[in-house]
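Our collaborator T.R. sent over the components below with a one-line note: 'Predict the complex.' Nothing else. No constraints on interfaces, no templates requested, no preferences about which chain binds where. So this is a plain run: every listed entity goes in together, and whatever single assembly comes back becomes the starting point for the next discussion.
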Amino acid sequence: MVLEEKVADEVEECSDPHKALRMDPNQQAWSRNERFMKTKILHKNDVSLRLLIEGTNSAFMNTLRRIMLSEVPSMAIDDIVIIENSSIIQDEFLAHRIGLIPLRTDLDTYNLPEDCSCKSEFGCNLCRVSLALEVEAEDHRITVYSGDFKSDNPAIIPVSLKIPLAKLAPEQKIRLEAYARLGKGKDHARWQPVSAVAYKFVPIISVDQNLCDSCGDCVKVCPKNILIKTGNKIEIRNINNCTLCRDCVHACQKDPKAIDVTWDKNSFILNIESTGALTPERILHEALKILNGKLTEFLEKAGKEIEKFKV
Amino acid sequence: MIVPVRCFTCGKVIGDKWEEFANRVKEGEDAGRVLDDLGLTRYCCRRMLLSHVEIIDDVIEFFETGKRKQFKPP
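Returned assembly:
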């Protein structure tokens, strides 16, 4: 009851009508937790980012995830002209492998071919990069690596230079010209800037000390080793690693159960793993920009329709 | 034939990790430990390297033998 009174006060204070709508205390779907979004970086390196996001819902998280997967552009090789290929890897096979190499992407300089001013089928310097591959094995067997590509733009190179593309026996040769362009994951997976992007609820594990006799059954069964037995107590560490499998609950022989695993349905752990084409922060930023663009467009279109209806 | 460029399931690049994995396992290191070192945490990526058989080396051999025979004087 105290909580509801507080919420009502906040509604009065709020001048923005949209915010006030969201803060309606009678709306059960919006819990108190959900109204203020908070984020915290749990882990970050060159290719992965783990974020704790509080005060949102799974619809928003899934929107973000799907945009990152299918709409954030990145660069990949799209067209290949094979001049010579005497290796035992067939042309199609080789082309497929080359397409899957992630390239370092420069979103500020390059345009998506459909948005580019050149309107050309073959592209221009603003929407296409050409890379050449010319390798010959002379007297001994060699491996062709992604690092053997010579790019027109030294900034657009494969993320990893050590991906084997083919192996050549002596006297075999590969000569080809490849054209990279920006694209989206919804057209082909090679344009996905992320390999795995996933979210999960923030776990809540509660141990009832009155019921628990610290038999240690739950400790043994936990696949992530989150539970530890210290003295007569079951303690929890690295709770964010919990996969919510509830094996510990099933293992507990007490009735009612002494341990329970639940989750906060308004808090999430978002894990973004980039292929290296873009930094994970940039991917998140671009995804939000795209979402914002979509919503703005919708608002404009819907606004026009409503205007028509009024007249 | 040759190691896949990416994991079939999640799309992580695994092709560049094969050579190190193969060499280290050949030297007797524990495969699971090597996979951890290489940063392959999910089982989809781990099976890519664990179950891979690099057949291309054997196939190239046929090509080389064929070439040698072809160029020998009769």
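Summary for T.R.: The first helix of chain A runs from residue 2 to 13.
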